[in-house]
Amino acid sequence: MILPPFELHQPKTVDELRRIAGELASQGREFDYIAGGTDVLPNYKNRLNPKPNVISVSSIDGLDSIEIDRIGARALISDVAKSSVISEHYPGLTEAARQVSSPPLQNLGTVGGNLLLDTRCYYFNQSRFWRQSKGYCMKADGDVCLVVPQKEICYATYSGDLAPMFLVLDAELELVGPSTERRVALRDFYAFDGIKRFEKQPAELVTWVHIPAQSRRLRTGYKKLRVRDTIEYPVMGVAVALACNGGVVEQLHVAVTGTEAVPLYYGDLGLTGQKADEATAAALERELLARIKTYRNVPFPPGYRKAMGGAFGRALFLDLAK
């Protein structure tokens, strides 16, 4: 499909980007940011909420570095997957990065883009012709959610791989806008709505992901359910971070993706202080099954995705507790 027309802006610095974004916002001209384009451009081709202006961040220097305590939002997924710093201190993040889509797309996609990934749904990620046949959904052109029929909340599913890992690592995002700079905990960033998605102003740009030093002592892992081993988004993903002391759970952090409109952080599920054994692993599985909700809006039956979430959590816990 041919892309719709838009004006492309290519700032060279963050300050220039902030100026352009501020001018467009003040003039009431809508815009999107673009980095690798692996999410934005396919949506534009399907005429899914295209904007008349697009600001590229691909020429901005300094936002692609990978350090022990912070990762630039423009860092490539492939670079995260290959980073010795990441694999040494956050192996679960390496696992998640290696499972994002396919190698060609990992070479284009960025950390910031994956965290801000648009939600997906049977009724949304289709051609205009297909969507017209269903009467459109509230995320594009319509006013009713076709997954859970109502007009208040979109139930399209978030399907990024990196977010659950950053959630269990207690990461913070650094954002800049035309006249603002701020940091926000990732656990407070996402908003439960497939349209709104997160607590970010349209003109704000994610520049850095900060990881606190205390997270380096955690053992981390990630498991993903998908239709094919490459290309596919997660229809269920579980991230676990664990620290044990004397065979007892000292810290436990669990998060999931691919289930609802946002990635969800479940904390320790009430299992801190328990023995790091089979019984606690089984309890973790039960707690996940009690919390995970899935909808009929992506491949695989909802019940199967839910069951695999529990199984993944149990397997990760046992592996990390060794």
Topology:
Layout: E1 7-9, H1 14-26, E2 31-34, H2 40-45, E3 53-56, E4 70-72, H3 77-82, H4 84-89, H5 91-98, H6 103-106, H7 111-115, H8 128-133, H9 162-168, E5 172-176, E6 181-185, E7 205-210, E8 219-225, E9 236-245, E10 248-257, E11 264-267, H10 278-291, H11 302-320
Parallel strand pairs: 1-3, 2-3
Antiparallel strand pairs: 4-7, 5-6, 5-7, 8-9, 9-10, 10-11
CATH class of the largest domain: Alpha Beta
Radius of gyration: 20 Å
Distance between the termini: 50 Å
Number of discrete domains: 3
CATH topology annotation of the largest domain: Uridine Diphospho-n-acetylenolpyruvylglucosamine Reductase, domain 3
Instruction: Kindly report the average pLDDT value.
Output: 96
Strand order, main sheet: write it out: 4-7-5-6
Helix and strand composition category: alpha+beta
Q: What is the string of SSEs from the N terminus onward?
A: EHEHEEHHHHHHHEEEEEEEHH
Helix content: 25-40%
Shape category: globular
> How many DSSP helices?
11
List keywords for this structure.
about 325 residues; alpha+beta; Uridine Diphospho-n-acetylenolpyruvylglucosamine Reductase, domain 2; Uridine Diphospho-n-acetylenolpyruvylglucosamine Reductase, domain 3; Enolase-like, domain 1; 3 domains; four-stranded antiparallel sheet; 11 helices; 11 strands
